[in-house]
Amino acid sequence: MQITVDRGAFIHPWLAVLIVFLSSGAIMVLELVAGRLMAPILGVSLYTWTSIIGVILAGISLGNFTGGLLADRFASRGTLSALFILAAMASASILWTVELTRSVTDLDLPVMIQVLLAFAIAFFFARMFRKRQKATENDN
After folding, report:
1. H or E element at residue 38
2. What ranges do the domains of the chain cover?
3. Per residue in 36-52, is it b (16+ CB within 10 Å) or e — as a string?
4. What average pLDDT score do residues 24-32 get?
5. Which conformational region is residue 4 in: left (phi greater than 0), alpha (psi within -120 to 50 degrees), or beta?
6. N or C, fewer C-beta in 10 Å, the chain?
7. What is the pTM assigned to this prediction?
8. Which pLDDT tens digit goes with each residue over 99-112?
9. Comparing C-alpha atoms, which of 37, 44, 45 is closest to residue 102?
10. In contact, 34 and 56? CB cutoff 8 Å
């Protein structure tokens, strides 16, 4: 398999470090905000915080994997820009998906499963896109 890289898409290493640092900071902020957004729906407990951490780490893992695949095939500034836009839209979608989680609490499931499903619905895909963007940044 041949990998074609657009050499005009070079990003200075310090700029890449800054982008990754700010992106990681944004992930941490969203992780902390997750607890505040979901507390009125699910409460604040060990299950809540464990689910926040688990769902966000799962999104980061899947995002790293898919981001690596994208960076190998489409390493360009255009791809990086598109992933920034997707990450921003996915992060903004959290405001609407949090309301969808209210129906999860009506299900006849154990509390741990309800909390995990609620956070997966609201936060998983937002984290996945954020990490895709970071993997593409590192390869440019």
Report:
1. helix 13-42
2. 31-139
3. ebbeebbeeeebbeebb
4. 86
5. beta
6. N
7. 0.66
8. 777 777 777 778 77
9. 37
10. yes
